[in-house]
Design goal:
Length: 431
């Protein structure tokens, strides 16, 4: 008779480890994670407003109603090669939108036509973004890696304590490759000083040194490409590893980006496709929450009276100037909105502030999903490169069960075993 076995369960996670990316949505919409991201979204405009006031770049215009407050010229999407763009979703994706918002200031910093004042503006913006998101990003990635590994979220106090202890490492990690790039850029900029005063001789001098510029630019390429693609992996490194520090984050992120680029690209495509679906759900939910209130309000009042209230409240929430709101009754000659009195302004302002918080929560999902997806991708790449299981995540000492070895007992002389076949407890006794 031959033995037969029946397959009763298939471990899809072992067959397809990238399915871990489908667990990111639940973590990204959890209240603690969304609360941290929302707080950062609400604070983000403060630094960018301050930078605009101090440096007053020439391009400054009315900022868009989304942080960070930099003109969105679609720089990064335009730089994406068509061969790569064809694999990415055409619809907005939470992971890509979060990445673009965080990386856009750095990309604009290295544009040739950026003036000195704009360079100072974007430098301040990059440092502000790094300083602002270092703690929320640390807490989100820490919670994500632990929950993805153990399928149970860590405590809020434990997560905050972990992020606070390693906060300086989270802040320093992206600066490791960026500082050498800026130092090299300063030395090359010195070649431009003679060109400013004597264009002809200065060009000859720059031409003689250009072979060295190209050689050092190869190193800059390695650093910048590793930074642009590897910075999402830096903070999960610090959150997951026992010895995770700034240098460890720099080394592992570059190793994974250049070691398994196709694996990395595949995981990003899966996360982007799933992120597009998740973003549609969250954005649609936010729209329903906003519009249902005005729909119900119009049922009790009238559409003619509620419509201007809605327009003004949404305008305040989005930060649009009042002149863009046109009177629907006079489209041929759109004047400024009529003054409806102080009570109208107070009511619509209160509604607008509430809606602004709602919009911030929806916008915060871009960042929470970005950090959670980056954490999942890091665990996958670590499994591919270092062959380290995805559930091997460092836990804080208070969370670990520390087994203390018992003190060595004093040597005893052997006693003859008792002749009793049983003991009082009914269990066999070990000698």
């Amino acid at each position: 008779m031959s033995d037969s076995q029946t397959i009763r369960r298939i471990s899809w996670g072992d067959l397809f480890p990238w399915l871990i990316l489908l667990r990111t949505f639940r973590i990204a919409i959890s209240p603690p994670v969304l609360a941290l991201a929302t707080a950062a979204v609400l604070i983000s405009p403060v630094g960018w407003r301050l930078a605009a006031v101090v440096f007053q770049p020439e391009f400054r215009a009315v900022p868009p109603p989304r942080p960070p407050f930099v003109p969105r010229g679609e720089t990064l999407p335009q730089w994406t090669p068509p061969a790569v763009r064809g694999y990415l979703p055409g619809a907005p994706s939470a992971v890509l939108e979060g990445y673009y918002d965080l990386a856009e200031p750095l990309a604009r910093l290295f544009q040739m036509r950026t003036t000195l004042r704009e360079t100072a503006y974007y430098t301040f913006g990059v440092l502000w973004t790094l300083l602002l998101w270092s703690f929320p990003g640390a807490a989100i990635t820490r919670r994500a890696v632990v929950q993805l590994a153990a399928d149970a979220p860590p405590g809020l106090r434990e997560t905050a304590a972990f992020a606070g202890r390693r906060w300086l490492w989270y802040l320093q990690a992206p600066l490791y490759p960026l500082i050498p790039v800026l130092v090299i850029g300063v030395f090359i900029a010195l070649l431009g000083v003679p060109i400013y005063f004597w264009p002809g001789p200065g060009s000859v001098l720059a031409g003689l040194a250009w072979i060295f510029v190209v050689l050092v630019s190869l190193g800059v390429l390695w650093l910048l490409a590793g930074l642009m693609f590897g910075f999402p992996l830096m903070w999960p490194t610090i959150s997951a590893e026992r010895d995770g520090d700034a240098f460890e984050a720099f080394a592992r992120s570059f190793s994974y980006v250049y070691g398994k680029p196709l694996h990395y690209f595949f995981y990003v495509v899966v996360a982007a496709l799933f992120g597009a679906l998740c973003w549609a759900v969250v954005a649609g939910a936010g729209t329903i929450v906003q519009e249902f209130g005005f729909w119900a309000l119009a049922r009790g009042g009238s559409v003619a009276e509620v419509a201007p209230i809605r327009e003004e409240a949404v305008r305040i929430a989005e930060g649009r100037p009042a002149m863009v709101v046109a009177n629907s009754q006079s489209s041929l000659h759109p004047p400024e909105p009529p003054d409806r009195g102080l009570p109208f302004r107070i009511g619509t302002t209160l509604m607008g502030l509430v809606l602004a918080v709602l919009h911030s929560v929806v916008a915060a999902f871009r960042y929470s999903y970005f950090f959670v997806s980056a954490s999942a991708i890091y665990l996958l790449l670590r499994y591919d490169v270092d062959e380290k299981e995805m559930d091997e995540v460092y836990l804080d000492e208070p969370s670990q069960k520390v087994v203390t070895p018992a003190p060595a007992a004093a040597p005893q002389t052997e006693q003859p075993a008792a002749a009793s076949p049983s003991s009082d407890s009914g269990e066999p006794q070990n000698p």
